[in-house]
Amino acid sequence: MKAAAFDYIRPETLGAAITLLSKHGPDAKLIAGGQSLLPALNLRLSAPGLLIDIGRLAELRDITLADRTLHIGAGCTHAHVMNHPIVQRHAPLIARALTEVAHPAIRARGTFGGSLANADPAAELPACALALDAVMHAQGPEGPRRIPAAHFFTSLFETALAPDEVLTGVDIPIQGDTQWGFAELARRTGDYAMVGLAAVARPGTIRLGWFSVGQTAILAHRAAAILTEGGPLEAACTALADDLPAHDDPQASAAMRLHLARVLLRRVVGAWGER
Amino acid sequence: MTSITLTVNGEPITATIPPRLHLADFLRDHLGLTGTHLGCEHGVCGACTVRLDGAIVRGCLVLAVQADCCTVETIEGLSDSGEVADLQHAFAARNALQCGYCTPGMVMTAQDFLLHAPADASRAAIREHLSGNYCRCTGYEAIVDAVETTLNARRTS
């Protein structure tokens, strides 16, 4: 249960980190909070030759609100984000979802961007990013670029980031008349969910972001379209069978997952009441 | 090998260590602070809980090199300073430990709860805060009792 040997560098700037990442290629890995990476290293599921520590870069730690856009720096810890007054007021879905991420000692270290870039299909934040129609900010040797959340999570633990790109932050569009809901089912507090839902209703659009239902966090388009058009909740529940690639695993069968997903959709959307 | 400088339980420390060494191993093997226990070494059990710059963390999920220039407090520090004397007494009085393996991490996490919790915090809130610390002996009831007792005592003192 000890990590294999590796070298370690803590660059002073994001630019230096990107240069190092370009230079060392796939043998290097970024570390920020390390709350997913270090278990993988300790279990020897991963053995990079070099860790590039971006955990102290102040330029990745901003939380700002401007032009109806909330920006959360990738290096902010979960604890910092969930307790931040701007996030609590303007993106309460994020603050709520983070209360379900592991435990206080993990949330003190784990980072917002780290969780998104890790793209664990059972993690809460990717589903929130999809539901909120967030935009990812990436930076690489060629400069910055923006990636819509809907195009970011490409496969199991895979994202649209190039090998030499760093996720620097996330933009979340803020609208006054937004309803949101969050629910997940796990056997124990802090465990990964068997199924979870982050839902956002804005004028004219409902987005249902699901996690622990497949290879990536996923939007349920058919169910959301039914709800957006004012259709019955039960029809949306039925449509989930086509939306979610529910799978069997040791935690739950596909049939149980689909059943639980419908339970969550009724809880979350039912609580919104008459629309 | 990498050189680090940090403060551990108020004492300045400089050491040269391999980057792969995690903080809990550094505390135990290099500094002899064996109160920090190792259970799972992948962030699940909470036995290695220590304070890093004031916040509780998993000692097995922080590299010692990441603690460079930081302040670390362990169960030895909290115990020697008397910060958790009442909590330790409550653990003993309520029989909140049997084998004691989880106890240092449990006390670190419980103290973190007590420092931040509202005075009227519920047993459910105690359970939730301690949910990342495993105990295989007590069934948790006595641990929650001890934390609740300390919460009530501190409120009235």
Give an overview in words.
The complex is a heterodimer of chains A (275) and B (157). Chain A is of the alpha+beta class. Chain A contains eleven helices and 14 strands. Chain A has three domains: 7-53, 2-Layer Sandwich (Uridine Diphospho-n-acetylenolpyruvylglucosamine Reductase, domain 2), CATH 3.30.43.10; 58-173, Uridine Diphospho-n-acetylenolpyruvylglucosamine Reductase, domain 3 (2-Layer Sandwich), CATH 3.30.465.10; 179-272, CO dehydrogenase flavoprotein, C-terminal domain (Enolase-like, domain 1, 2-Layer Sandwich). In chain A, a hairpin with a 2-residue loop joins strand 8 and strand 9. Chain A is globular. With 157 residues, chain B is an alpha+beta fold. Chain B is 39% helix and 16% strand. Chain B contains six helices and five strands, in the order E-E-H-E-E-E-H-H-H-H-H. In chain B, strands 2-1-5-3-4 form a five-stranded mixed beta sheet. In chain B, strand 3 and strand 4 (55-58) form a beta hairpin. In chain B, helix 4 (103-116) packs parallel to helix 6 (141-156). The longest helix of chain B is centred in the C-terminal third of the chain and has 16 residues, at 141-156. Chain B is globular and about 45 Å long. Chain A binds chain B through residues 1-8, 10, 31, 34-35, 38-39, 41-43, 51, 53, 55, 79, 102-106, 108-109, 188-190, and chain B through 2, 18-20, 22, 25, 40-43, 46, 49, 52, 55-58, 60-63, 65-66, 68, 109, 112, 127-129, 131-133. Chain B: Keywords: 2Fe-2S, Iron, Iron-sulfur, Metal-binding, Oxidoreductase.
